Amino acid sequence: MPPLNTSRPFPVTFLLMGIPGLEHLHVWIGIPFCSMYVVAVVGNVTILAVVRAERSLHEPMFFFLCMLSITDLVLSTSTLPRMLCLFWLGAHDIAFDACLAQMFFIHSFTAMESGFFLAMAFDRYVAICHPLRHTTILTHARIAKMGASVVLRGVAFFSPHPILLKQLPYCRTRIIAHTYCEFMAVVKLACVDTGATKRYSLSVASVIGSCDGFFIAVSYVLILRAVFRLPSREASFKALGTCGSHVCVILVFYSTAVFTFLTHRFGHNVAPQIHIFIANMYLLVPPFLNPIVYGIRTKKIRDHVLSSLKVKVT
Questions:
Q1: What is the DSSP secondary structure assignment for residue 131, as one 8-state letter?
Q2: At residue 229, what are phi and psi to the nearest 5 degrees?
């Protein structure tokens, strides 16, 4: 494909390639991706509906879970429908502004997801280590402030991404070797030195991810220390059970995130197919797993859903 006219500051459209080398499998790859998206939407909407309908669930843990569900819905919806159009309909074109908007939603809401994981870890820490002060520490006002802080952090740190890319001239190919408008994939198309822009993106991602991961780890170290001091084994298992689902989802989220980050930073020899596939899992698996894990492991949500289904059946 010929290069763009250098007199234009930016292209009208980009072309998403998908997964390089696996174009012949796009239709089949789209099937599990679509299934995961459907489960993510149905599961997260169910959590929001259950928590809203059941007043006994109006607790800090479930408020943070609702925030996480909204984040998952936005994150998956900003990528999956467009990705399925690429896989099934061969719709490679994406408008430049739509590409920048998708990029903003992906990166900012990924940061929000990390922040809500940290908020949920703090909630579990207070609930287990300071149970008598749980409701006084995590008041509704404080929960709202924590949620707003997480949202503002994601918006503030990642709003510069589309602004910076809007200023760059694009005189190379319009082809993005990815399934969505990922920052690093787009910035490579600019025909000027983008070292400072790349360093800003990687620095922001590493600072947010490492800080959240560190404080989540500290929270669970303190939780484990408190749990193992409980007098009965049954109480210890019950306390650990309330945290098991959270730890499972966090490990999936951060393992794929760390792989993606290290690939951008050091993994120049990693095959593009592997990098792009893991990057897709990074965005799809947490929204898919969160409602399943929390819905199954949380008795109050599970009981409410089952009782609602029984009423509808009868």
A1: G
A2: -90, -5
In the DSSP assignment, the letter for residue 3 is: P
Start-to-end C-alpha separation, the chain: 61
**Nearest 5°: CA angle at 191, between 187 and 196?**
50
- SS3 call for 192: coil
| pTM summary value | 0.87
Q: Is 20 exposed, middle or buried (0-12, 13-18, 19+ CB in 10 A)?
A: middle
* Residue numbers of the chain with a pLDDT score lower than 50: 1-7, 313-314
- Map 75-97 to HEC letters: HHHCCHHHHHHHHHHCCCEEEHH
Angle between helices 195-227 and 233-265 (to 10 degrees): 170
Among 291, 277, 219, 216, smallest CA distance to 251 is for 216
Single-letter amino acid, residue 44 = N
Of 78, 81, 54, nearest to 66 by C-alpha is 54
